[in-house]
Specification:
vWFA_dom_sf; alpha/beta; von Willebrand factor, type A; Rossmann fold; VWF_A; Immunoglobulin-like; VWFA-rel_acidobac-type; 7 helices; four-stranded antiparallel sheet
């Protein structure tokens, strides 16, 4: 554990999970009762309750790239590690509450595109947020800071987004213990770079993992990371454990790089981050209409999703990663879903 704030938040999350009903969207956890002590007065038979569930949120597009909203459970098959699973619950989700995390890149490379991000991001929030939804806003540069905690108020989020500033030197008013909303994430050596992977890791682990229902993170970034303590694989794992879909709007000011890539492999890594969690990377450059169209695509996908739940044939809660594949009948149908999950034991 590399963040003092994370340790505190992680403890609080485990306490909440221990006191509330199991989250159907989390990786499967056992709710079977502990073995009772031997007693001649007790019945000789024991009832075991097994409600281990894996829930998958996914969208389906046809060969013309249009969203498909009329499928039934008979149309789709779920494979876990290539083994077919029996779908227990199936719903076409249109109005289930939505939990959003907006992650805003405020590093030096975004100097010329930040106003565009603020304008289109605010408009998106005003369109998509309903009274039963909630969202938070995080900025990341040499620090990772919580600009607005969970709220259903699009105007409050917009105000926070419009106050975001480019930060290249590690001050910018941050202070307190490291972690989201508690000051800068510690880096090795002098403050530098863009803590993108740390931001995704923290948002998933500290803010989204204990939430229920549909969860999505939207990153507005050029995809470059420098100085994070966490790796890309850590960010993907944290998002998968939180059952959070990651969308990346790749917003790159090409002029900032002077036309030279110089080891910049942001697009490939952002595509992997998005696809492994069931989202997409959309390259919008620094084009306002493209960015608006991308936000509209995300909005449509989040409002046109299926959720399918099943009890895994492999009931072991050993923390291992299980590969997932969803196949749906139809001419040229493409399924967009997370690629796997971790079979986490209780209180892990």
């Amino acid at each position: 554990m590399f963040l003092t704030g994370t340790a505190i938040l992680g403890l609080a999350a485990s306490q909440v999970q221990g006191q509330s009903a199991p989250d159907p969207d989390a990786p499967p956890v056992s709710t079977a009762p502990d073995a009772a002590p031997q007693d001649d007065q007790l019945p000789t038979t024991t009832l075991k309750v097994n409600v281990n569930l894996v829930s998958l949120y996914f969208s389906v597009r046809d060969k013309h790239n249009g969203l498909v909203s009329t499928l039934t459970r008979e149309d789709c098959t779920i494979l876990e590690d290539k083994t077919p699973q029996t779908i227990k619950n199936w719903t076409a989700e249109a109005d289930q509450p939505l939990t959003l995390g907006i992650l805003l890149d405020t590093s030096g490379s975004q100097q010329n595109v930040l106003p565009l991000e603020q304008e289109t991001g605010s408009a998106f929030l005003k369109r998509v947020l309903r009274s039963k939804d909630e969202a938070f806003l995080v900025s990341f540069d040499v620090d990772v800071d919580l600009l607005s905690d969970y709220t259903s108020s699009a105007s409050q989020l917009s105000k926070a987004m419009n106050k975001a500033e480019i930060n290249t030197a590690g001050g910018n008013g941050a202070g307190g213990a490291p972690g989201i909303g508690q000051g800068p994430v510690p880096t090795h050596g002098a403050p530098k770079g863009t803590l993108l992977y740390d931001a995704v890791y923290l948002a998933a682990n500290d803010k989204m993992r204990s939430e229920n229902g549909r969860k999505a993170m939207i990153l507005l970034t050029d995809g470059g990371d420098q100085g994070s303590s966490k790796k890309l694989a850590d960010a993907i794992e944290a998002a998968q454990k939180a059952n959070a879909i990651v969308y990346v709007l790749l917003i790159a000011d090409r002029g900032f790089y002077g036309g030279i890539s110089f080891g910049y492999n942001g697009p490939a890594e952002m595509k992997r981050l998005a696809e492994q969690t069931g989202g997409r990377m959309i390259d919008v450059g620094n084009n306002g209409p493209k960015m608006e169209a991308a936000f509209k695509q995300i909005e449509d996908e989040l409002r046109t999703q299926y959720v399918a739940s099943y009890t895994p044939v492999n009931a072991k809660l050993d923390g291992t990663y299980r590969k997932l594949d969803i196949q749906c009948k139809g001419d040229g149908l493409k399924v967009q879903s997370r690629k796997g999950y971790y079979a986490i034991a209780p209180n892990d």
